[in-house]
Design brief:
The complex is a heterodimer of chains A (about 325) and B (about 260). Chain A is of the alpha/beta class. Chain A contains eleven helices and 14 strands. In chain A, a hairpin with a 2-residue loop joins strand 12 and strand 13. Chain B is built from 13 helices and no strands. In chain B, helix 1 packs across helix 7 and helix 2 runs antiparallel to helix 5. Chain B is elongated. Classes of the chains: A alpha/beta (about 325), B mainly alpha (about 260).
Chain lengths: ~325, ~260
């Protein structure tokens, strides 16, 4: 659905435009149809610039990008017609009513039945009762909902969400996440820039970690495995250091750490190896209270990747 | 065409929610209509004293006085100075609206979602330009209509009314006014799309009034005589200027620069 090859954007700045800033460097990736793709990176990483290029708002300096079979730089109007974008700032017309805001965009996107479509989205996002109120009187969450509705009016094939829950309170953020979940279930392709790593972990099928260039791209689970391996935590009633040595002697065990009353064991395939490990521990006299998989947060993965920046090898 | 209508509708819905803008659109034409009426009213009571003053009327203007009394001739010469006011109206009124239209959207961050729609640059500029120009043109035409209606009320002679309702004034108000409005709007849109602060846009756009003021002073100094020939030349020049400005405006409207440059 989205393919980029060597996509690069260089901004020229300074009085004589002689200074160059590489905002996006040689980005090559593929986003599949129906996928929710998380695009993670620190502030100033070039995420918004990437979204602007993919929505044909700005032209790439080098490289190619194809969105829904249409070429960026060649089919720009057609691309803008088939994608929806939620910009980082809702950017609504504050003096106008919610209904009027949506009507304007429905007309600009050539929606067939403007009143029915606008009413449908106002009802869907629970804004119908406030439809006549000026957007300036809305809370941040309501504006964000309205901006999401605006991005969906023309039933776009691809949806670009730039920080969809940024600055929202937990309730509004949950509402937005739930709505993204609904869109995901309906098979929409979603390209989402976010700083909220927990959100990315929950919603995204795959994530890319990006800082001017692509650092890595994979599913959250695969990234965890690549970076930390798979780890099992065994909580014991009491700890005997000999049990750690016993486990280290087993060929399936890659590493063992002792943390208080817990053994943290790195395994290649926990589903295959756990029964054997537990059997050995029980036979050695260990009282097992609990067994679980140690799940590193996406935040840990992200920070590791960003700090080791040259981690293209990961 | 549908996109242009939508932009006009959007601009008007926003602009007319601002009472100060409505005030400007109504007050200025009323003021500019009242000034020549007061002048004509005052002169009407002093027609006899004007007879000798006809000698001061520039020679180039005298053909317009054919068949009129000396007092009427003096009246149409003096009222002609106010013709510039009716030409100024469609220049001054839309400048504020047009100057704000692009940079205003940029500062309120509504420009990016707007540019992300399938609207073309020509549609966007045409919509914003017409939204600014139409109220100004309608206001100036309405004030001219009111001016014509009130002339008999203040006792202006039929000869003077006939001159004001004649080709020179009609060409100025009905043709030159809109052409000047288009030029002013294009200039303001150009400025609005190049700066990052609405106040700067308004200040720079106000420069457009300078050529009109120059016209006023040139007429007062007797350098030019406003008559039908002058109007036809002005129309040809303005049409060329408008075409050039529209082409230039569309070709230099750079979405990328507008969205990404803040200095």
């Amino acid at each position: 659905m989205i393919i980029t090859e060597g996509l690069t954007k260089v901004f020229k700045i300074g009085k004589k435009q002689k200074q160059e800033i590489v905002a996006v460097d040689n980005l090559s990736l593929q986003v599949n149809e129906g996928e929710v793709f998380g695009f993670l990176g620190p502030n100033g990483a070039g995420k918004t610039t990437t979204v602007r290029m993919l929505t044909s708002l700005i032209a790439p300096t080098r490289g190619k990008a194809v969105v829904n079979g249409l070429k960026v730089g060649k089919d720009d109007t057609a691309i803008r017609r088939c994608v929806g974008i939620l910009t980082e700032n809702p950017g609504m017309y504050e003096r106008l009513s919610a209904e009027k805001n949506l009507q304007i965009y429905a007309q600009l996107y050539d929606v067939a039945d403007v009143p029915a479509t606008v009413n449908k989205f106002l009802q869907m996002l629970d804004l119908y009762d406030r439809r006549k109120d000026p957007v300036g009187s809305f809370s941040k969450g309501m504006r964000q909902k309205l901006a999401i509705a605006r991005s969906l009016l023309h039933d776009p094939k691809v949806l670009f969400l730039d920080e969809p829950t940024s600055g929202l309170d937990p309730e509004a953020a949950k509402m937005v996440r739930d709505f993204i979940e609904v869109l995901k279930q309906r098979g929409r392709t979603i390209f989402m820039c976010t700083h909220n790593l927990d959100e990315a972990d929950r919603l995204c099928d795959r994530i890319a970690i990006f800082k001017q260039h692509l650092i890595t791209v994979d599913t959250p689970a695969a990234l965890r495995e690549k970076l930390y391996g798979r780890k099992v935590v065994i909580h014991l009633r009491e700890m005997n250091p000999a049990w750690a040595d016993l486990l280290r002697s087993l060929p399936a065990v890659k590493a063992v750490e002792v943390v208080d009353q817990k053994l943290v064991i790195t395994l290649e395939d926990p589903e295959r190896d756990n029964p054997q490990i537990i059997r050995h521990l029980v036979n050695a006299g260990a009282d097992i209270r609990f067994v679980g998989e140690l799940r590193h947060s996406l935040e840990q993965i992200y920070l590791e990747m960003i700090h080791s920046e040259k981690g293209g090898a990961v | 065409m549908r996109h242009i209508r939508t932009i006009i509708d959007k601009e008007w819905a926003e602009v007319f929610k601002n009472r100060m803008v409505i005030f400007t659109i109504i007050l200025m034409p009323l003021l500019f209509t009242a000034l020549p009426l007061v002048m004509l009213g005052v002169m009407g009571g002093a027609t006899g004293e004007m007879e000798g003053a006809v000698a001061d009327v520039p020679l180039g203007f005298l053909p317009a006085c054919e068949g009129l009394s000396a007092g009427d001739c003096m009246q149409i010469y003096l009222v002609n100075q106010f013709l510039i006011l009716f030409m100024m109206m469609p220049v001054i009124i839309p400048v504020t609206i047009a100057a704000y239209s692009v940079v205003g959207e940029k500062t309120t961050r509504s420009l990016e979602p707007l540019l992300a729609t399938p609207i073309t640059t020509v549609e966007l500029l045409a919509g914003k330009g017409l939204a600014a120009a139409i109220p100004a043109i309608v206001a100036s035409w309405a004030s001219f209509g009111l001016f014509l209606l009130l002339l008999p009320v203040i006792g202006v002679s039929k000869g003077v009314i006939g001159y004001i309702a004649g080709p020179t004034w009609l060409l100025a108000v009905l043709v030159i006014g809109p052409l000047m409005a288009i030029a002013a709007v294009n200039f303001s849109l150009y400025v609005s799309s190049r700066v990052n602060d609405p106040r700067v846009a308004e200040q720079i756009s106000a420069v457009i009034i300078v050529p009109v003021m120059a016209l006023l002073f040139a007429q007062l100094a007797g350098v030019i005589t406003i008559n039908v020939t002058f109007m036809i030349v002005a129309i040809i020049v303005l049409v060329l200027i408008d075409i050039g400005m529209m082409y230039l405006g569309a070709s230099i409207f750079d979405r990328e620069t507008i969205l990404t440059r803040w200095k």
